[in-house]
Design goal:
Layout (H helix, E strand, L loop, with lengths): L8 E5 L3 H13 L4 E5 L3 H13 L8 E5 L10 E4 L15 H16 L6 E4 L4 H12 L6 E3 L3 H15 L6 E2 L2 E2 L7 E2 L5 E2 L2 E2 L15 H19 L4 H15 L4 E3 L2 E5 L5 E6 L2 E4 L2 E3 L8 H20 L12
Parallel strand pairs: 1-2, 1-4, 2-3, 4-5, 5-6
Antiparallel strand pairs: 7-10, 8-9, 10-11, 12-15, 13-14, 15-16
Helix pairs in contact: 1-7, 3-4, 5-6
């Protein structure tokens, strides 16, 4: 993807709290030689880039550019879409759908002209609906267009489980799947701690009973709403999550991540974007992989897919099965 002699380049569309934090996390991780912030709010985007450049001496070498011209994104290896209407207290992610579909179509339509070979990652909410729409109008193979999905939700879950069990988050292997939103599920049947199935884990009297699963899921699913109620937006955690995803792409790490991709029959689900584990590397997201789920998890995943199918149809989004396969 990156030509010999040319450095890596990230373009972040949207210079608000999420976009600027994504750029900040990428800068600190040394993920690219050039990071572009693109936003139609000229004064804001120039100020954000100036603020980041002022601190460049404290981070790995990189150039940060702020621009209101989509041409600044030319040649980007990764394009991250964060621009959109902000989620308000009490508002669900799906409430944002109609207005943000139009914003994503407009912004990425212009950026694609200048960065046709990039990997496109959708962060703007509702992430799964907008990823599905973007797969269609960008006319790229689905693996090159994917959403941040439940990567952050999974991090929240692992943190919560680690606190309850008094173990490192690195020892907790559990995934949130489905919609990045209200119908998301935890794949409890595949969850384990250090290789021990979660249902059987009991060390020093610390364990998690099946009767606690619903409460844990509610806490994970409600985390963003609690933050939004307190400060108006979430930005730090998604910035760090996006740095992890971008690292997997730019460094070709072949990471197993629950990103949002187009399903084409996996788990009996088709024609919708939602999250399940995928292998993420230089060419985008491969998968989703099919895990051996129990009947409860499988039913939950399919119910989440049905909720997103319904939203896609309400928005009048056409079917894109087969897009990018020619």
């Amino acid at each position: 993807m990156t030509e010999p002699g040319r450095g890596t380049k990230i373009a972040v569309c949207g210079a608000g709290s999420v976009g600027s934090t994504v750029a900040y996390a990428a800068l600190l991780r040394g993920l690219a030689d050039e990071i572009v912030l693109y936003d139609i709010a000229t004064a804001l985007v120039e100020a954000q880039a100036g603020d980041l450049n002022d601190g460049a001496a404290f981070a790995p070498p990189a150039t940060v550019v702020g621009s209101d011209d989509p041409a600044a994104c030319a040649g980007a290896d990764v394009v991250v879409m964060t621009a959109g209407a902000r989620q308000k207290p009490g508002q669900t992610r799906l409430d944002l759908a109609e207005v943000n579909v139009g914003i994503v179509r407009s912004v990425l339509g212009s950026v694609r002209e200048h960065a046709p070979d990039a990997i496109y990652i959708i962060v703007t909410n509702p992430c799964d609906v907008l990823t599905y729409a973007a797969v269609g109008f960008l006319e790229l193979p689905p693996g090159r267009v994917f959403g941040s999905g439940t990567v952050l939700d999974t991090a929240r879950l692992r943190y919560l489980l680690s606190r309850r069990l008094h173990v490192s988050t690195r020892s907790v292997h559990a995934l949130v799947a489905g919609e990045h939103g209200d119908s998301e599920i935890v794949l409890w049947s595949s969850a384990n701690v250090g290789g021990v199935p979660l249902a059987a884990y009991d060390v020093e009297g610390r364990s998690i009973r099946a009767s606690e699963y619903a409460e844990i899921l509610d806490t994970v699913a409600g985390s963003a709403y609690k933050v939004i109620e307190g400060k108006g937006a979430t930005n730090y955690a998604i910035g760090l999550a996006m740095a992890d995803i971008m690292s997997a792409v730019l460094r070709d790490e072949h990471r197993f991540l629950p990103v949002s991709t187009l399903f084409t029959g996996q788990y009996g689900i088709s024609d919708v974007c939602l999250s399940a584990p995928c292998v993420v590397g230089l060419h985008g997201a491969a998968g989703p992989a099919v895990l051996p789920l129990d009947a409860t998890d499988l039913a939950g995943l399919r119910a989440s897919a049905d909720a997103l199918h319904h939203q896609n149809r309400l928005l009048g989004l056409p079917s894109f099965v087969g897009v990018g396969t020619s």
